[in-house]
Amino acid sequence: MTDRPLALITGASRGIGAAVARALADTHDLLLGGRDSAALAAVAADLPSARPWPVELTDYAAVGESLGGVDRLDVLVHSAGISRLGALAEVTAADWRDSFEINVVAVAELTRMLLPALHAASGHVVLINSGSGIKANPQWGPYAASKFALRAYSDVLRAEEPTLRVTSIHPGRTVTDMQRAVRAFEGGEFEPSKYMDPNSVAAMIQAAIATPPDAHVHEVIIRP
User: Fold this and answer.
1) Residues with catalytic annotation?
2) 15-24 and 198-209 helices cross at what angle (nearest 10)?
3) 3-class secondary structure, 175
4) 141 Cα distance to chain centroid
5) Predicted TM-score of the model (pTM)
6) CA distances for 11 relative to 79, 176, 206, angstroms
7) Bridge partner residues of 78 (DSSP)
8) Strand 50-54 relative to strand 6-9, pairing
9) From the DSSP assignment, how many helices (H) and strands (E) are in the chain?
10) Sequence-ordered list of residues with C-beta below 8 angstroms from that of 5, at least 6 positions apart, any chain
11) What is the pLDDT of residues 108-165, one digit of tens each?
12) What is the DSSP string of 68-118?
């Protein structure tokens, strides 16, 4: 790592997370978070400023140990997440727990662990939310509820940590593996031409991060 700003991106092995890594590579050193070491290595191979940070985000002891050398962090991008879909009569307690554990609790705990490093840099926390964090639709209960909770978390973090910038990003349908799974659940075709490119979402995130210090982007809603 160099004396350039440092960004840690979770969910960086694919989709929006990988696109954000590519968007920030020219201006930031990068820690690429994810569970798939091989996929992270493949993304990092094309980005000289990046190195993999393979970790299971819900193994909080392991996460804490892996952050031992991070004493200053300029940008934290939370892109990791899961979707558990189904009618309320069918989704299980495990679906609800998994949704909140990954989409909310892991976000809150990683941010808490990194607060000293973020304070040292007057850093920026970016939370990749969803349109489902603004409007909840049938059969999206666990996912939407977790994203509403994530939006509430971002509001509280922004209010409690005035030296940090906190931006909540709400993309619509995007060409990702998650969207492919969603369309399979919905029984429809996966039609990339109707969705946003992850690089388009990443460009908006990059712009929010590059906002001059006299301004603070609270929330960005992006639609195809």
Assistant:
1) 143
2) 50
3) coil
4) 20
5) 0.94
6) 5, 12, 16
7) 127
8) unpaired
9) 8, 7
10) 27, 28, 29, 74, 75, 121
11) 999 999 999 999 999 999 999 999 999 999 999 999 999 999 999 999 999 999 999 9
12) TT----SEEEE-------B-TTT--HHHHHHHHIIIIIHHHHHHHHHHHHH
